[in-house]
Write a structure and sequence with these properties.
Blueprint (H helix, E strand, L loop, with lengths): L2 H10 L14 H18 L11 H19 L1 H16 L4 H23 L3 H10 L17 H13 L9 H11 L13 H15 L3 H19 L1
Helix pairs in contact: 1-2, 1-5, 1-6, 1-10, 2-3, 2-6, 3-10, 4-5, 4-9, 5-8, 5-9, 8-9
């Protein structure tokens, strides 16, 4: 699951009170939603968060992220589609490592793209969360090891200015992003000539990869709410 999906699940499973209205979020709600996206933002910046975070609401959002990731990666929806797409990518000529990475991340990006294109107010809510990474009052600089703090601060500044992509639902855009994401990882990288191969497999699989999303969201929200209640 990628950051837009996490914001949606967090909005449905806030620890205190009713679901968050994505059309009109308060500051504490927005901080909680940012926390749910923050591990993915950190991963994009090649850093690891140190918990607990100084801001307790932000930290609850990070905890929500981990519950959602666990539920998602164990779900029948993901397990079935991940295995099927991995097999198709290998059959199309990708090595095992790149096929595995492209299947996993490709599903997550296409899922995000579908949610952003279909869930009212989700794009604006996610964009607002990204902008909050520039909020110094949240003390995000302290959430990573001191040796990485300057790099993290620069990444947060770029994130706050970043315009939310509107093409995660397009197989071509996802294939090119996958190529960039794994480019510096020898075991996962694949040659540029295979970008069109990945695009073709994603395009032929897209209907299956985005089928049943409404039920998936409800199941994930129920699992996350259960885990939060059990551990509160």
């Amino acid at each position: 699951m990628n950051f837009a999906g996490h914001v949606l699940i967090a909005s449905l499973t806030t620890v205190h009170g009713p679901p968050i209205n994505l059309a009109s979020t308060s500051s504490p709600e927005e901080v909680f939603l940012l926390g749910s996206a923050l591990p993915d933002i950190a991963s994009m910046g090649r850093v690891r968060l140190q918990r607990p975070l100084v801001d307790s609401t932000l930290d609850l959002g990070v905890q929500n992220h981990h519950y959602a990731d666990s539920a998602f990666h164990q779900s029948d929806w993901f397990v079935k589609r991940n295995a099927g797409l991995h097999h198709k990518l290998e059959a199309a000529g990708l090595r095992r490592g790149p096929a595995r990475a492209c299947a996993h991340v490709g599903i997550e990006l296409l899922l995000d793209g579908t949610l952003l294109a279909t869930v009212p107010h989700l794009p604006a809510a996610v964009q607002s969360c990204l902008r909050r990474t520039g909020d110094s009052s949240l003390k995000l600089r302290t959430s990573v090891k001191s040796a990485r703090a300057d790099h993290w601060q620069s990444h947060l500044k770029r994130t706050a200015e970043w315009l939310l992509p509107d093409d995660y639902h397009r197989p071509s855009a996802v294939a090119h992003r996958l190529h960039r994401i794994v480019a510096n990882r020898p075991r996962l990288a694949f040659p540029s000539e295979q970008v069109t191969v990945v695009e073709d497999v994603l395009a032929r699989s897209q209907e299956e990869l985005t089928d049943g999303i409404d039920d998936l969201v409800l199941d994930l929200a129920a699992n996350v709410a259960r885990d939060q209640a059990h551990n509160s």
